[in-house]
Amino acid sequence: MSYQDQILVKIDGKVHEFWTDATIARSIERGAHSFDLTLSDSSDENALSTPRVIQVGMSVQIYINNEQIVSGYIDNVKTSYDATNHTLNISGRSKIGDLIDCSTEGKQFPIGQSLVQISKALCEPFGINVLVGDNVADVAAETFTSDHNLDIGQPIWEFLEELARLKAILLISDADGNLVMTRAGSTVSATSLVLGKNVKSASGSFSQQQLFSDYIVCGQVANNPATKQTSKDNTQPKASISSTQTMRYRPLTISSDNQADQFTCETRARWQRNVNESRSQNLNYTVQGWRQKQDGPLWQANELVHVNDPWMGVDKQFLIVETRMKFGSSGSTTELHLMPKNAFSVRPDSTDVKGLR
Fold it and tell me: Which terminus of the chain has a lower count of CB atoms within 10 Å, N or C?
């Protein structure tokens, strides 16, 4: 972090300074960004004589210098004091947190509406804008060929994620609290993570529990008693994709949720293998400061970063899944949670998969 970098927090439009501890997390897995901030007013008589009026539900914008990184609301406030000190802690999330928490009395979206239309209708009451990335603009505007129901009591975010999955779209938050439709990023960070150069600490988790030697997907065929089909016509579609990530025999067989042809089965099997293999690798790195390099860009979630780390046995690109910018008594650091990009390859529904071929 360069000496100019500082956290600026606006709460209901008023700037509050002198934060002593901060954690700001921006993730593509959880949807909403989150923050946890603490300040302590010293024994200065003027500071203690002017209470900070901060309450749950107030709006929050967090900046690094002049760059906004989070916009949302306070979820929790904790305060304590004694004769000489006053400590205040606030935590909260970006605007999408309301979609994660809230549900409705149910709503039907009839055939002919797109993911963009449905998302805007559900986000508008919360003051959340919907932005569509160029990489998904066409498919996000495609209309669904069936009705979709938001069940009574079902979280809105859960419902939107289900619809987005049908279109192989990833839903994330941006710095302004908007809902953004996109896919796993392709932008490469300006700085690599290199053992012995800019890595402060690291940890890795590698598992084979969800790795298999063969991924087999069995499809469903339409059952139409009005037609005279031969048994050959009714042969169940099936596809098998092998893996080199495990040396012993470990098959996984999946029954397709929907009617599927041979191509759809192959696509699902390949997707299952790629996602399982990618999610078996989790890396966490801590670097000094909040920027990729001196006066460079901040570390960003949904960007690719090259990792050269012989101790972890990796020398390749990973996707930044989450950044946790921290500030405290030991200075400023950024924790980066990484996975291979294929971990966020969203599986399309069988009715949409052919359009992605």
Answer: C
Sequence-distant (≥ 6) Cβ neighbours of residue 25 within 8 angstroms = 33, 34, 35, 322, 323, 324, 325
Contact call for residues 162 and 150 (beta carbons, < 8 A): no
The answer to whether the CB of 298 falls within 8 A of the CB of 69 is: yes
Q: Which domain holds residue 27?
A: 7-94
Q: Are residues 149 and 274 in the same domain?
A: no
Each residue's pLDDT tens digit, 182-241: 999 889 999 999 999 999 999 999 999 999 999 999 987 665 554 444 444 567 788 888
For the chain, list residues with pLDDT below 70.
Answer: 1-4, 41-51, 221-234, 257-259, 347-357
Angle of helix 156-166 relative to helix 115-123, nearest 10 degrees, comes to 170
Structure tokens of 143?
């209309």
pLDDT, tens digit, for every residue of 316-327?
999 999 999 999
Residues 90 and 103 in one domain: no
Total Cβ atoms within 10 A of residue 110: 10
Per the listing, tokens 């901040």 go with 298
pTM: 0.85
Count of other CB atoms within 10 angstroms of residue 333: 18
Question: Do 154 and 268 reside in the same domain of the chain?
Answer: no
Q: What is the CA radius of gyration of the chain?
A: 24
| CA separation for the pair 196, 307 (Å, rounded) | 12
291 and 269 assigned to the same domain:
no
Residues 274 and 307 placed together within one structural domain of the fold: no
The answer to whether 234 touches 224, Cβ cutoff 8 Å, is no
